[in-house]
C-alpha cells in the first residue's frame, strides 16, 4: 500500500508531460516566440480550450465522482470572467480617460477621472454612475480574490439550501439550471450594474501593457491556462485518490449507506460543489481575457449542458476523460461551426455543417450514453487492459447518479 | 441500566400504523433477536432508531447521558455508535474491499479531516484484522461488487465492526447464505455481542436458536412477547400470529 502518489495515479504524470509538451510546442510554433505556424487567434482558441478542460475536470469531480449532475457550472465560470473583466475594463478605461484629460488646461481631479471612466463604461446602458458591485474594480488583488470568492459564495449558499433539503437527482439538475438561467436573466438587465447584454468587452487588452502585441499576450495566457489546468488536475487527482475520493464515489453510488457510516453527505456535497465552483471561476477568469468579451449569453443554461456533453463524451469518472472530451468536442465544434468543414451537396439538399453540427453532437451524445458509456476515455482501457465487470446489467449502486455496469472497472 | 430505550413509539404511513406504541430496551453487551411476520414493523423499527424515519410520538433514549436520538441526523446517530446492516447487502461495489473497510473505520468524519487523512499503521493493521475475522483476507484488493452474496454480507458486517459501534442493528444477516456461511456469521455475531449490544432481525428459527439469546416478537407494530426462544415459541399468541401459519 505504500506507493508514491504518481504510481497510484499513472494518468497524472502522463497528463502533465503531455500538457507541458503541448504548451512548449505551441510556444515554438506560435507567432510571438517561434516560427509563426500557429496564428495568434488559434493560439487563443487553444488557450481557451485549456480553460474549458479545467472546468470539465471540475464538473467531473461533481458529476463523475460525486454523482451530482450540475447543469449550472457555467454560471461560476461566467462569474469568474466578470470578476476579472471588471478590473481589466476599469483600468484600461482609466488609462484612456487619463490620456484624454491630460491635455486639459487644468489637471483633472480624481473625481473627474472616476466620472469619466463611469461615463465611458456605462454610457452604453444610459448611465454614468458606478454601481456598488464595482466598488473594488480598481484593485487587481481584490478582484482576483473575488474570482474565487463570488462563485464560491454563490455555490455555498445555493448548495446549502439545496443539499440540506436533500434535493437529489433530476430535481437538483433542474434547480442548478434554474440558478444559471436566473443569473443570466438578471445580468441581461441594464440596471444589473454589469452592462446588461453588452457584457464586458475589450478584455484582451491588458492595462499598462498596451505596447505588448496580442501574439505575446496570447502565449502568456496559454501558459497561465496550462499551469492552472495542470494544478487543477493535480488537485483533483489528489482529492479523488484518497479516502475523500472513496466517500465521493460512495455518495455517487449509494448515499444512504454513506450516511449510515456516519459521514454527513450534505457536508461533503457542499464541499465538492463549492470547491468546483471556485475552480470554474478560475477557469473563467483565464478564459474571458482570451475571448475578449463576457456577456450574459455565456452563462445561459445551454453552456452548462454542453459542458456535461463534453464530460459524457470524454468519459465521466476519470479525470483524463473530462479533458479529452472538452478538448475534442470543443475543437471539433469550432471547426464545424467556424465554416471550415466542407458542405456536402446531396443534389436535392446541401448539408451545411454550421446548421447540422448540433444534430451530430446531439446524436453522438445519445450514442455514447447508450452504447459506449465509458466515452472516448474508455479507449484507454483497451491499452491498460481494464475490463468492465459482468454484473448482468446491474448498476453499481441504487442512486440515480451511480456508475453503470459498463462504466465500471473490474 | 440500558443502552437504548425505546418507549411508546408510534408511526403511521398514510394512516397505516406501522409501529404502534412500541417499547424496547437493550443493555450494554447483549444479543437480542427480533422476529415477527412480514409487515410486523421490524424494518421500520430499525429505521426509527437510525434516524431514517421520524416517529409521530414516543421517545428514543440513548446511552449513559440519556440523549434523545430523535433530533439527530442519520450521520450523527451513526457517529454516536449505532451501526446498521441492511437486509440487502449494501457495500460500495465500485471500490475494493480494502477501501470499503477503510471508509468504515472509526475515525474523524468531517470533510477536511478526511481530505488530509492518511492511513496509519494501526489503521491498516485493523483492516487486516477485520478482514481475517470476516474471512476476506485474500480478497482485500478485489472490487466489492465481485464478491459472492455471502461475502458481501460479511463485508457489510465487517464494515459495521470497523465503525466500532456500541449497538449493531443487523437485518437478516443469514439471508441467501449457505449452511457453512451461516455458521461463520453466527460466530461473528456472537463474538461481537461479547463487547457490544447486537440486535438481529431474522426469519430463520434455526439461525436464532444458534444465537442462543433473548427473543422479542413483533406483531402489528408492537411487542407481542419477549423471552427465551423456547418461552416465546410456546406462547399461544405467538403461535397464533406467526408460527402456526
From TrEMBL, chain A:
Q: How does it sit in the membrane?
A: Multi-pass membrane protein
In which compartments does the protein localize?
A: Cell membrane
Top-level taxon in the UniProt lineage: Bacteria
Q: Which organism is it from?
A: Silicimonas algicola
Segments spanning the bilayer are 12-33, 45-64, 71-90, 140-163, 170-188, 219-240, 267-287, 293-312, 319-336, 356-377
Enumerate the Pfam families for this protein: BPD_transp_2
**Major location, coarse class?**
membrane
Any one GO molecular function term: branched-chain amino acid transmembrane transporter activity
PANTHER family xref list:
HIGH-AFFINITY BRANCHED-CHAIN AMINO ACID TRANSPORT SYSTEM PERMEASE (PTHR30482), SLR1201 PROTEIN (PTHR30482:SF4)
- Name of protein: Amino acid/amide ABC transporter membrane protein 2 (HAAT family)
TrEMBL record, chain B:
> From which residue to which does any coiled coil extend?
none
Q: Which InterPro entries match?
A: AAA+_ATPase (IPR003593), ABC_AA/LPS_Transport (IPR051120), ABC_transporter-like_ATP-bd (IPR003439), ABC_transptr_urea_ATP-bd_UrtD (IPR017781), BCA_ABC_TP_C (IPR032823), P-loop_NTPase (IPR027417)
Q: Which domain of life is it from?
A: Bacteria
The protein's matches in CDD domains, at most eight in alphabetical order, are given as: ABC_Mj1267_LivG_branched
Example GO molecular function = ATP hydrolysis activity
Query: Where is the ABC transporter domain positioned along the sequence?
Result: 4-245
Pfam families on file = ABC_tran (PF00005), BCA_ABC_TP_C (PF12399)
Keyword annotations for this protein?
A: ATP-binding, Nucleotide-binding, Transport
Task: Give GO cellular component annotations, separated by semicolons.
Answer: plasma membrane
Please give the name of this protein.
Urea transport system ATP-binding protein
